[in-house]
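Job type: complex structure
Entries:
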Amino acid sequence: MNGKTATPEIKSIKDFMVFIRGELKPKGKILTPFNVISAPVMLLGVILIAYRMVKGLSSITNLSQEFPWGVWIGFDVMTGVAFAGGAYVLTFVVYILRSEKYHSIIRATVLNGFLAYVFYAGALVVDLGRPWHIFNPIIGNKFGLSSVLFLVAWHFLLYMIAEFIEISPALAEWLGWKMIRRILRALTLGAVIFGITLSTLHQSGLGALFMMARGKIHPLWYTQFIPILFFISSIFAGLSLVIFEGTISHRVFSDQLDHEYHTKYNDILVGLAKGCACTMLAYFFLKVLIFMHGQHWPYIHTPWGYWYLVEVIGLVLIPCFLFLRGAIDRNLTVIRVAAVLTMVGIIINRLNYTIIAFKWYVPLPVHYVPHWMEIETTLAIIFAEIWVFRWIINRMPIMRHPPEWAIEQEEQIVR
Amino acid sequence: MDRRRFLKTLGAGILGTAGTTLTASRLKAEGVVGGKEFVGVLVDTTRCIGCRSCEEACAEAHDLPVPDISDESVFEKRRDTSVTQWTVVNRYETKKGEVFVKRQCMHCSQPGCVAACLVKAMKKRKQGPVTWDENCMGCRYCMVSCPFDIPKFEYNSWNPRIQKCNLCWERLKQGEQPACVEACPQEALVFGTRRELVEEAKRRIYQRPEKYVHHIYGEYEVGGTEWLYLSAVPFEQIGFRTDLGTIAYPEYSTGFLYAVPIVLILWPMFLMGVSYITKREEEIGREGETR
C-alpha cells in the first residue's frame, strides 16, 4: 500500500489553494493507451456538443418526429441509471442489514453510482431541446404534478444529493476536515434510507415513463408491470456492474489495496453472484407470469418473438444459471462472464423499450438508427466519467484505507 | 436508533412525500370540463373533396408557409403533419372510391401529452384546445405519450418549439371559429360543443345508415377526443388506428403515481425498522464479546 496520503493541514484559504493545485496535477504516466484513445474522443465530443447547441438536435442526431427519443435517452439515461443501481442495493446491505463483508467496496460503488447520475443523467442536458429550462420543474415554473417525468426529475435531483452525502466523508477525509466529516458521517443513515426509497421510485419511474407509450411498444414488452420489471432488473444490473467494474479497477488500482483485501474480494464476488442469481430468477418468473397472463403465445413464432427469447432466455436465464454455477464452484471467471452477459441483456432490454421494439410496426428504413455522432458523444461522456472516477480514486480514500483519525472517529460513532 | 436520528430520517421522508402526494388527486382534473363544455369539430369524410382549403387557411392563420393547394401531386404520398403544417389532407383509395381525410391534433379530452408534461407547457384549455407554452424544456415526452403522434418538434432549431394544431385557440378566445372550419367550402367540418357534435354525428348515421359505418371516431377512443370523424368505410382503411382502446391515456400512469406516496411512506419506515433490528443485534453481539 504505497498510496498512503498524509492528511493535509489546511488552516487558511491559501493552504487550501496550494493543496488543490497540487492535487489537480496528474499522477502517474500521461501517455497510457487509455488516455491516448479517450482524450481525442472526449475532445471531439465537446466539439459535437457545442455544434449541436448552435444548430439544433438534427445536426448530430437521427432523431425524428416518429422517434423523439434515441440512444441518449435509451442508453445514457435508461441503461446508465440501471447500472447505477448497485449503489442503493449495496448501501441497503451494508448500512441497513449491516453486513460488514461488503464494506470495503461500498465507497467505490456509491462513487460510481453518483458519477453515473451526474454524467449519464447529466447527458440529458444535451438531449433536451431547451436545456436552459431544465430548472423549471424544480424552481416551480409550473409543476407538472401529473407527470411521471416530473417525479423522475425530482427524484434524480434528490438522489444525487443523497448519494453525495453518502460519499462525502471520503471528501472530508481527503481534505482533512475532521469536524465536517463527523457531521457528514452522522447524516449517512438518513441519506441511505432516503436514497433507497428514491431509487425504488425512480428506477421504476423510468419504466413508468413508457406506460403512455401503449400501442407503440411491442406487446411482448408492453405490460402494466413495466415499473416493477425496471426496478427488479436494476438490482442485478447494478450488481453486475459492480462485479464488472470491480474486476477492472482491482487491476488498475491494485497498488491501493492490501493483501487481505484481495483474499476477501473473492468472497464478495461470490456473494454478489448469489444476489444476482436470486433477483434474476425472480425477474425471470415475473416475465413468465406476464407472458402467460398476457396470452402472448401467438407472438412467439415471429421475429419479435425470437428477439424476445434471446433477451429472456439468452440474457437473463442463462447468466442467472452461470451466476449460480459460479457461486457454487467459486469460479470467478464464470461469474465475470455472467456479469458481462447480464449487462448486455440490460442494455438490450432498455433499448427495446426506447428504440428497438418502440414503433416496431414502422418499416426498417424509416426506423431510428443512431447517428455515429450520437454514439461518439455517448462514448465521450463515458470516458469523461472514467477520468473523473480515476482522478478521485487516486486522491481520496475510496479503495484504500481511510486516514487513522477517520478510523478512530468511526469507532466512536459505532459505539 | 436514537430519537434525533429517527426524526431526521422521518423528516427526509416527509420532505420527499410532500412533492408527490398531490400528484394523484390533480391528475384527472386536468382533462375534465372546467365549468364549460369542450368545443370541437366534426369531420364528415364523406363530404370532403380534398380541396385543401383548410390547409391553406390554417397556414395563413398561424403565419406558416402557405402550401400551393392546386398541386394535386401531394396526394401521391401519405403525408404527416409537420412543424410547418399543422394539418394535412390525405387521399385513400377504398371500395367506396376516393376518400379524403384531414389530419391534425385530435385534442383529446384527457390528453396524454398534458399528463406527460413536467412543466405544464402542454395545457388543456377550458374550451377544449390543447396548446403549447414557451416554458417547455424540449424533453419530447409529449411526443412519446401522444397516441396519435401529433406533437412535432423543431429539430433544426437551437431554440426549438413543439408545433401542432391548437384548435385556433387565439381565434376561439375572440369568439371566432377555427380557420379550417371557416374555410371549408363543403361543410365537411362542423364546429360546435362536443355534445352537439356527437348528436349531429349520430343523427347523420341514423338518417343514412347505408352511407356511414356505425361508428364515430373520437367519441370513445382514448377517452374521447374533441375532433370527431364520420366515415363511409371502416376507419382502419382511412389511416386511423383502431387499436387504441377507450381508456384515457393519463389513466395508464395513475397506478404508478398512486403507488408513489405509499412507497415514500412505507419504505423509510421499513428500512428504519430493519436498521433498528440489525443495530440492536450488533450491540448485543458486542456486549457478548466483552463479557
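Summary: Confidence is low (pLDDT under 50) at residues 13-34 of chain B. The first strand of chain B starts at residue 39 and ends at 44.
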